[in-house]
Amino acid sequence: WSSDDVTVIFVLGGPGAGKGTQCAKLVSDYGFAHLSAGDLLRAEQERPGSEFGEMIKTYIKEGTIVPMEVTVQLLENAMRSSIESGNNPKKLFLIDGFPRKLDQAHAFERSVCPSKFTLFFSCSEAVMEKRLLHRGETSGRADDNAESIKKRFRTFVETSMPVVDEFEAQGKVVKVSAETSPEEVYREVQKGLKERGV
Ligand code: UP5
Ligand code: MG
């Protein structure tokens, strides 16, 4: 595809900020394809015969960032499938939980497609921790426990916030407070998208 006819919006925010929840709402109202980097990595980890399974498992448990070659390839494959399926005629993509390291951001925008902007959910660690521990009671996610959550928070602050800061400096961030109810947050999201012509 050419980057002129594909629209990519990055969706960033700390662990448990509500990226997946808000993306699901946008999918049903705007027809975006939703690609969660974390979901793609978890699926790859489960795929029989994957050469990356064990490695991905370790990175996720430790809350660190899987080497970008793996993630960029999974995203690119998922974008291609979405376009080829015919179910995404406008080629609209929400890329959730990516890029969370500067090297990934630069590689993706250079080799796949520049983003239109980044939707950024800001949320305090106290609120995010509460949500994740609650979800951990039933999610089965290997990283929804107090120890992994602490590591994910540290990676977010040290490694992922610099990505948001860089996009912010380029005037490419729509920031939404994610502390209120999902419906309230979504109203702010819709307002933010409208201001950017989406
Ligand atoms: N909830 C949501 N919104 C709420 C609201 N407004 N009020 C009250 N509750 C709300 O929500 C989390 C929980 O909170 C849910 O129970 C929800 O009902 C509730 P969710 O929408 O799932 O939040 P989200 O931001 O998507 O949280 P998630 O846990 O998915 O965020 P992470 O960024 O930590 O997870 P991700 O799957 O993106 O990544 C996992 C790991 O994969 C990373 O730590 C990393 O090791 C690896 N990874 C990479 O290596 N590279 C990548 O590029 C991406 C991931
Ligand atoms: Mg998520």
UniProtKB/TrEMBL annotation:
GO biological process: one example: 'de novo' pyrimidine nucleobase biosynthetic process
Keyword Phosphoprotein: no
Enzyme class: transferase
Cofactor note: Binds 1 Mg(2+) ion per monomer.
Keyword Glycosyltransferase: no
Catalytic activity: UMP + ATP = UDP + ADP
Location of region: NMPbind: 36-66
Keywords for this protein: ATP-binding, Cytoplasm, Kinase, Nucleotide-binding, Nucleus, Pyrimidine biosynthesis, Transferase
Protein location: Cytoplasm; Nucleus
EC number, as in UniProt: 2.7.4.14
LID as annotated region, ranges: 134-144
One Gene Ontology cellular component: cytoplasm
Residues binding a ribonucleoside 5'-phosphate: 42, 64-66, 97-100, 104, 141, 152
Record GO terms (molecular function): ATP binding; nucleobase-containing compound kinase activity; phosphotransferase activity, phosphate group as acceptor
Residues reported in the UniProt entry to bind ATP: 16-21, 135, 180
Chief localisation class: cytoplasm
Cofactor(s) needed for function: Mg(2+)
Annotated family: Belongs to the adenylate kinase family. UMP-CMP kinase subfamily.
Domain notes: Consists of three domains, a large central CORE domain and two small peripheral domains, NMPbind and LID, which undergo movements during catalysis. The LID domain closes over the site of phosphoryl transfer upon ATP binding. Assembling and dissambling the active center during each catalytic cycle provides an effective means to prevent ATP hydrolysis.
Quaternary context: Monomer.
Record function comment: Catalyzes the phosphorylation of pyrimidine nucleoside monophosphates at the expense of ATP. Plays an important role in de novo pyrimidine nucleotide biosynthesis. Has preference for UMP and dUMP as phosphate acceptors, but can also use CMP, dCMP and AMP.
Name listed for the protein in its UniProt record: Uridylate kinase
The organism of origin for this protein: Clathrospora elynae
Included range, full protein: 116 to 313 of 325
